[in-house]
Write a structure and sequence with these properties.
Distance between the termini: 21 Å
């Protein structure tokens, strides 16, 4: 039963993707996916001290960080983190990262 359900979900995804592209929303959906996948993209150590919060249409990713020390450290790694954020995307969707020191009480978002 699970395989049949999974096959239907895959089929639905394949129907929705072209519809979103036709509406011009495909790029935004791909950008938003980076927010949900932040922890998987950057790994457990960085995910433990940061949470992707939002991404703007121009490609600015807003990330909350546990402390100013971590914000400074991650800012120095920005080039590498941009590569990780954009890995597997059709086009370079994330162009910059803005860091904000904020409490990280909630666990990272999951798919």
């Amino acid at each position: 039963m699970k395989a049949r359900r999974r096959a239907r979900l895959t089929a639905l995804r394949e129907l929705v993707r072209p519809a979103l592209s036709a509406l011009g929303a495909g790029a935004r959906v791909e950008q938003a996916q980076v927010v949900l996948e932040w922890a998987e993209r950057v790994g457990p150590q960085i995910a433990a001290v940061s949470r992707a919060r939002a991404v703007t249409p121009d490609g600015t990713l807003f990330v909350d960080v546990a402390s100013s020390a971590w914000a400074n450290e991650l800012a120095l790694m920005q080039h590498t983190l941009l590569e990780l954020a954009n890995r597997g995307l059709a086009r370079r969707r994330i162009t910059r990262i803005r860091w904000s020191v904020a409490p990280l009480d909630d666990p990272p978002p999951t798919l």
